[in-house]
Every structure is written in C-alpha cells, then in structure tokens.
Design brief:
two-stranded antiparallel ribbon, TIM Barrel, alpha/beta, 12 helices, 8-stranded parallel barrel, homodimer
C-alpha cells in the first residue's frame, strides 16, 4: 500500500486508528479456549467486528512467538484473515547486520518465502543504516523506525543529547538519508505530548505510528494538536483498551463500541483538516 | 548455565568458540535438498561434527523466520539437537515495552510455553531499562545486550557522544544498574579492535559476545589482546567462515577442520591466561 492509498483509506474510513492484536492467550475470554486455535478465533472475531472502524491492524510478534510453533500458526492465520485494503503492520522491532536484516525483510514482506506479506514492519535503529536498508528494497512497503517510544525508560538512551540533538532526533534526521516519506514512518509514543511539535520540525510530512493511546495513558487530542499534518500523517494505535474491553462472550461487540468511540473522536479531528 | 559452568566448559573444551547457525537454505549443499528438512539436516551434521570444538552455538532467528512456519520448525528441531552442556544463544535482537519483552523472554527462555529454552538471548538497548529487565527474571539465563556491533553503520548512532561518553559506552554503564556480570553480556564486534580496551575499563569482568571473526574480517588475536580477562571473558562467534567452508558432500568434515583451526588458536590464547 503506497502513501496515496493509505491517505485514501483514512478518508474513506474517517479514521486513522490501528488496532493492536496483542493477543495473550491468558487474557482472552474463557469460552474461546475450547476452539482449536483460541488466539486466532479471538482475532477473527475482533477483526470482523472492527474492520470498518480502523485503517490498520498491528500484530505484535512477541505475543505469537511466546507460544512457539502454535503461536506462529495463529499469526499466519490472523494475517490471512486481514481485509485486503487494511494497512497491516508487523510490530516486530527487528534489526541486524545487512545480510541478516534482508532475511527479516523476507520474513515479513515476502509471502513466497514466509507466508506473510505485511505492508509495514517496525525496525530498531541502534545498528544504523545497513540494518535498515534491506527493508527499504520492497516497493510499496514501509519501514517504521523506532524514534521516541511510549515507555518510561525511553529516556534512558533516546533523550541523550549529542551536538545539541537528542538521539531520537538524530535517528529521524539521519534516516532521511536512506529513506523518505513514501517508505518510512516513525514510532512516536502518544505519551510524549508536545514532543510531537519538535518532531514535526524534523519530519513535517512523514506518517507517525503512535502507540500508547488507551492502556498506556496517551491523549489523542494532544497527539492531533501537535502531530497532525494536512495529510493526517498519523496512525494511532490502541491495543489493550479495545481488544480487552470485555472479557465476556460479548468481547467483540464491546471492542467494536470502544473502537467506535475512538473513530468518532478521529472523525472530528479529520474534519478539522478538511478530510 | 551460570557463569562458573560456562568458564568450566571453556576450560574443558579449551575453546571459547561459538558457531553461528546462520543457515540459509539457498547456500547449503545441494545434496541436502532431498531431505524432509534440509536446514535441520545441515545443522545436525554441523553440530555433530563440531560440538567438541566449541562452547556455544548461536542461532540467528532471522534465518529461520524468513521461511515462516517451516523455518520455525527447523529452529525448534535444531535447538533440540544441541548438546545439553552447550551454551545456546538465540541471536534475536529483540526488545519492546515491558509487558511485550516479557513475551519475548517466554519465547526464548520458557520451554513449556514455546518449546525453546535457550541459555541466552541478544537484546537491543534502544528502548531502555524496561525493555531489557523482563529477560533478567530468569535464573541462570543471560541477556546479551547490543553494545558496539560489528557492522559498518554501527557508527551511525553507537559512536554519538553525549557528556563525553559514546552511546555504546553509556549502554554498557547504564545497563549495569539493572544487571551484573552473572546475567548480562555485551555484543562487541570483532571488527572493533582497540575499542575492546576501552570497553574493558567499563566492564572489566563481563563476558563479551564477539561476532565478526571470519567472513566479516575481525582478528582473533586483536580481540584476545584487548578483550580477554583472567576468566577468558570472551565468546567469539564465527558463522559463515565455518559452516559454509565447503559446499560439497564433505561440508561437515570441512567445517570441523575450520573449527579446529580456530579452536587451536584459542587454546594458545587460553594457555596464556593459565587455563
């Protein structure tokens, strides 16, 4: 999916919501445990209930890898159940030396090789250009680079200042030597409020993937005030606050209601930029 | 495996070699392609031929994930074929917010959950303390944090200087607030030569995992001169130079010869510290 198609989807859906399928087998409703693949069954019902309210699903690979082969099977089945016009994100936070990052790119972007064919993958920047570039070799695919993450200890290293620029700022500027607003996005945590204004000086048009609204406490209004562009420029993710809104047999219906609340707030924000 | 057991293995084997099972199905000898699982067959023969010459096998997950479910199966079978007294490393370079890193820790350290039970996993430091700590909750397991990596573009961010310390140095000092020499190692590329001397000022006793000898051009003599401690303190990894030394039916035998060369060089270095 290219940039124009993504923007078009945001206009059609009146939403820039991504729903995070961080599906923990210990947290899903008990009545699903009798299914052959409870995690897939949960995801399927969540997707079917919410797919008109979001433009993206983000699958965090950790929640699948922790169950080994069974988890990887759930991941592939979930991927195959995603609607074709949805922006699919493998939240994998990969990154390695060049020849190895090329393998990770195959893992998430090459269906012939891996059965997976996501639109985007999240990548960790620590190892620099040659750890990121192999992901950029796929047409109409996206690399979403960690910049300023939503967790408390993002401050441990991301705020370190060198030559007057903090590390996350250097990541954003340096990476623009390898990539552009058509193939790269940045992860910026919703909990970071006004930092969005500073980031927009460095990346005025790039899409930002924004986790941390919902369970992690970030504010959608703040994110929009400081981070929105004329093209929207935001994909805001919520995971736990939507998918675990109910633990009963009504979980998918309640998840839909939670997603609707966020979508309606987003629709207002989009109206303000003429979408 | 705890620190004392690892040191004991180094003494017994007269080796601190790790062999990297970066097994690419496109690079293995053609006669293996008729096997049900050619990647596992390759690994099995390499392990059987080299297991007395090395103290560790390092499995880079990218090479398995790129083949999807089939690759994950090869990974589990390979893990199960490792000798019990070998230090097993999942070179996965994971890291995420706390609750998600806990899932990655389960993926590599909890056999009940994932069928995998490695001794160590490599972790990326960018997201800070809470992305690393969940891996430290497992007794006698190791977190191997990326510090100064072997690739060219390590310079993009790892050498940035803040308050007179380069980023990789801050990673090494800061992480000692969460971990110690009994549960943490650092990745330092063999290509970094004299940087080992500086790193030893910051982490005098920690084990270092050193990739980059062999195909990447690092020198074992330099690594030992600047990085060895009285307890050895090094696990030096070679992947391609050993496992792909021959592309014929003799591949395992030739890999054994290559591993022997490295082991013999290591034996000399260990003699110098009285091992």
């Amino acid at each position: 999916m290219n940039r124009q198609q993504l923007i078009e989807q945001i206009k059609i859906k009146k939403s820039f919501l991504s729903i995070g399928l961080d599906t923990d087998i210990n947290k899903i409703p008990k009545h699903l445990l009798g299914f052959n693949d409870p995690v897939f069954e949960f995801n399927k019902q969540i997707i079917d209930a919410t797919k008109n309210l979001c433009v993206s699903y983000k699958i965090n690979t950790a929640f699948y890898e922790c169950r080994g082969l069974a988890g990887w099977q759930s991941l592939i089945k979930t991927f195959n159940h995603l609607p074709k016009d949805i922006f699919s994100i493998a939240d994998a936070k990969r990154g390695d030396i060049g020849n190895t990052s090329a393998m990770y790119a195959e893992a998430f972007f090459n269906k012939q090789s891996s059965d997976l064919n996501f639109n985007a993958v999240t990548v960790a920047p620590y190892m620099g250009a040659d750890s990121v570039k192999p992901f950029l070799n796929y047409k109409d695919k996206w690399t979403i680079l960690l910049a300023l993450t939503s967790n408390d200890s993002s401050k441990d290293f991301q705020f370190l200042s060198s030559d007057g620029k903090q590390l996350f700022e250097t990541v954003i500027t340096k990476s623009q030597e390898w990539a552009n607003e058509d193939n790269m996005m940045y992860v910026v945590g919703a909990t970071k409020g006004k930092a969005f204004a500073d980031i927009r000086k460095l990346a005025p048009n790039h899409f930002l993937l924004v986790p941390g609204v919902g369970a992690q406490g970030g504010s959608l209004a703040d994110v929009c005030q400081y981070g929105m562009t004329k093209d929207c420029g935001l994909i805001v993710n919520s995971s736990r606050a939507i998918i675990y809104a109910s633990n009963g047999e009504d979980f998918a219906e309640v998840a839909k209601k939670e997603a609707e609340k966020v979508q309606q707030e987003m629709e207002k924000e989009l109206k303000a930029i003429g979408f």
